[in-house]
Structure formats: structure tokens, C-alpha cells
Design brief:
mainly alpha; Rossmann fold; binds adenosine monophosphate; binds tryptophan; 347 residues; 13 helices
């Protein structure tokens, strides 16, 4: 049975690990806002994922959780009509992740490139949580039987793993699923939504590396909380080549930095890369960069301003998260109870 027989539901998550940047905004958060028009959405601050690499000091983690929440709200996520919450308040995520630890195969996780990147050379010293991270991510999504997951391009492999886990659960437990009264598959196969011209925003210093929260160079990224002067400076210093911009998108091939900046311009103004080149083809970066910087400032300044305002009201943010967690639990609990019945856990 295909997912079309499941109620459509959107789920996505962002880790509260600090330095929220333009890649997070264009690759994920902008999509979150748009999907609210057509779908029921859950947007989760994945604090349990945020302790898989380093354990942050508690006050830092709290602040980062509030910062991601503030970014959602400032960008236009609506916590009244949709659900905004932090992962650790809904214990079903961790509960289902354990089940998925027993469904996913070690061989599947061994193929995850993000683990290899994050663990680096010292794999033996990485936490078990970092290794099983994609199982928790699958649990995040499937605890709600979510069908659509807006993410950046770097999460594609994790979504494939979530589909593999859902498929194996549906197949291996087909008989129990049927005898518990469920028709067809228990889990939908969640689809990644990776669309547009900024699914992989690259570092401003190196067009071969993605823009990342953990890059030691702050010049590599535009942070959502950067002020106008900082954004202008970072754009001015962004690495480029010496040629003028091409007039067609084919001309961006082999020019990673140019391609990246044109993609950012396109995504910020919600037009295609070709439309950007229709205006800027033949122009030098000395013309293009100030226009891009101005566009980034115009888009991001009001968001930064609202984020700062919200960060001064931590109780308000915490209320939203608590309320969202409560709403999330009313969806996840009955699904988790069904899973317990299917597995034969007495409850
Ligand atoms: P993370 O910061 O890893 O929790 O990522 C949150 C969301 O932002 C995920 O959907 C990522 O795929 C997306 N994302 C992170 N970095 C980038 C980037 N450089 N370009 C596009 N999307 C990104
Ligand atoms: N792994 C994602 C990232 O690093 C964050 C995440 C956790 C997520 N759980 C999720 C994204 C569920 C989408 C759906 O970006």
C-alpha cells in the first residue's frame, strides 16, 4: 500500500546546536512556513539529537532550544494552527527509537556519510548516540506517521534509512499488524521534500563545503542573528572567481562559488537561477555582491529583530513548547500503543 492511503502530515526537525544560518533558513525553515498552507505540520526542536556530538552546558542548550523556536516563530511558523515543540518533552520519540534500534541493521548505519563526517578519524571515540542518530530521526517522523519531510539535501540519506526502517517493520511484522486490526502497511514511507535553488547552501569561503553551524570560520556563513554590517562584510568577503556572471545556468557549471551565490539570490527572492542571470548575466561580482547583500539584509533583518524580541520572553517560548508537546503527544501516544500491541509488549 502506498502512502497515499495515509493522512498527509509534515514533520521536520532542527538541532539546537547554535549558529542558525542562511542554509538552515533557505534549506528548511522557509519550506516549513510554506507547507503550513497545505498540510498539518509538526516542527520539532530536536534537543535529544543535539547531545549526540557534544554535551553542551545546560544553560547553553536551553538558550539554543529557545533560539531555534524563536527562529521558527520569527520566520512565520504558526504554533496555534500547527505544532511546535522540543523533542525531549515527548517521550514517544525515544521509546520508538529503541524499537528502531532493533529494526535497523548495523550495516545500514555503517553506510551513513554524516556519521563518517561527524565522527571523523576517531570513530571508536564517537558516542553510540551519534551512530544511532538516524534511528531516532526515523522515530521522530514515524511516531506521527508523517508522510512528508522538508529538509536540506544533506538529510536525503537519513530519509532513505527512515523508509528502509518503515519498510522492514511493515514487512517483518505484517502478520501481527494484520491481527491487531490494521489494514495494509502500518507506517507510511516518508518522502523527503528537497526542492528549490538552495537545498545545499555552500560555505562563503569554500564552494566545495556546505555552510555549517560548526565551521570554525564565522565568515563561512550568514547567521540568522548577524546584523546588517556583518552580513554586508561577509558578502563582500565571499570567495568568487574573477569572471563575470554567465547569462545562462549552464555557465555556472564548474563555478561552485558563483553557483552558490546565484542560488542564494534566487532562493531569497523566490525566483529561478535563470531569472537572476537574466538580470545579472555579464555583470561583475562587484555589482552582484552588493545587490545580494542588500537582499539578504532586507530578508533577514526583520527575522533577527523578532528573534531577539522573543528571546527576551523565555517564558512565552517555553509555554509554546509545552503546549506543542502536549498536542504532539496526543498524536504519538496512540500510535506508540499500537506499536506495543504489534510487538507483544503488555500494557
Ligand atoms: P541542522 O542544523 O543539521 O539541524 O539542520 C536543520 C535543517 O537545515 C535540515 O533540514 C538541514 O538539511 C538543513 N540544512 C543545514 N545546513 C544546510 C545547508 N548548508 N544548506 C541547506 N540546508 C541546510
Ligand atoms: N537530522 C536533522 C539535521 O541534522 C535534524 C532532524 C532530526 C530531523 N530529526 C528529524 C529532520 C526529523 C527532519 C525530520 O538536520
Amino acid at each position: 500500500m502506498s502512502h497515499t492511503s495515509f493522512e498527509q502530515r509534515v514533520f521536520s526537525g532542527v538541532q539546537p546546536t547554535g549558529n542558525l544560518h542562511l542554509g538552515n533558513y533557505l534549506g528548511a525553515i522557509v519550506k516549513f512556513v510554506a507547507l503550513q498552507e497545505t498540510h498539518n505540520c509538526l516542527y520539532c526542536v530536536v534537543d535529544q539529537h543535539a547531545i549526540t556530538a557534544d554535551i553542551q552546558p545546560p544553560n547553553v542548550l536551553k538558550n539554543n532550544i529557545r533560539e531555534v523556536t524563536a527562529a521558527f516563530l520569527a520566520a512565520g511558523v504558526d504554533p496555534k494552527n500547527h505544532i511546535v515543540f522540543n523533542q525531549s518533552q515527548v517521550s514517544e520519540h525515544a521509546e520508538l527509537a529503541w524499537v528502531f534500534n532493533c529494526i535497523a541493521r548495523i550495516g545500514w548505519l555503517n553506510r551513513m556519510t554524516q556519521f563518517k563526517d561527524k565522527a571523523g578519524k576517531n570513530k571508536e571515540n564517537a558516542s553510540v548516540g551519534l551512530f544511532s542518530y538516524p534511528n531516532l530521526m526515523a522515530a521522530d517522523i514515524l511516531a506521527y506517521k508523517a508522510t512528508h519531510v522538508p529538509v536540506g539535501d544533506d538529510q536525503k540519506q537519513h530519509l532513505e534509512l527512515a523508509r528502509d526502517i518503515a519498510t522492514k517493520f511493515n514487512q517483518d511484522l505484517a502478520e501481527a499488524i494484520r491481527s491487531c486490526g490494521h489494514e495494509g502497511d502500518f507506517f507510511p514511507l516518508p518522502e523527503p521534500l528537497i526542492q528549490g535553488s538552495a537545498t545545499r547552501v555552500m560555505s562563503l569561503r569554500d564552494g566545495s563545503k556546505k555552510m555549517s553551524k560548526s565551521d570554525p570560520s564565522d565568515l563561512s556563513r550568514i547567521n540568522l542573528l548577524d546584523d546588517a554590517d556583518t552580513i554586508m562584510k561577509k558578502m563582500r568577503k565571499a570567495k568568487t572567481d574573477a569572471e563575470a556572471l554567465p547569462s545562462g545556468v549552464d555557465g555556472l557549471q564548474g563555478r561552485a562559488e558563483a553557483d552558490n551565490l546565484v542560488g542564494i539570490f534566487a532562493a531569497l527572492s523566490n525566483i529561478s537561477k535563470q531569472s537572476v542571470l537574466n538580470d545579472f548575466g555579464g555583470k561583475q561580482f562587484s555589482d552582484f555582491k552588493p545587490a545580494l547583500a542588500e537582499l539578504a539584509v532586507t530578508t533577514l533583518s526583520p527575522i533577527a529583530c523578532e528573534m531577539k524580541r522573543l528571546m527576551n520572553e523565555p517564558d512565552y517560548i517555553d509555554d509554546i513548547l509545552r503546549d506543542g508537546a502536549h498536542k504532539a503527544k496526543t498524536i504519538a501516544r496512540p500510535i506508540m500503543d499500537d506499536i506495543k500491541d504489534i510487538l507483544g509488549f503488555i500494557r
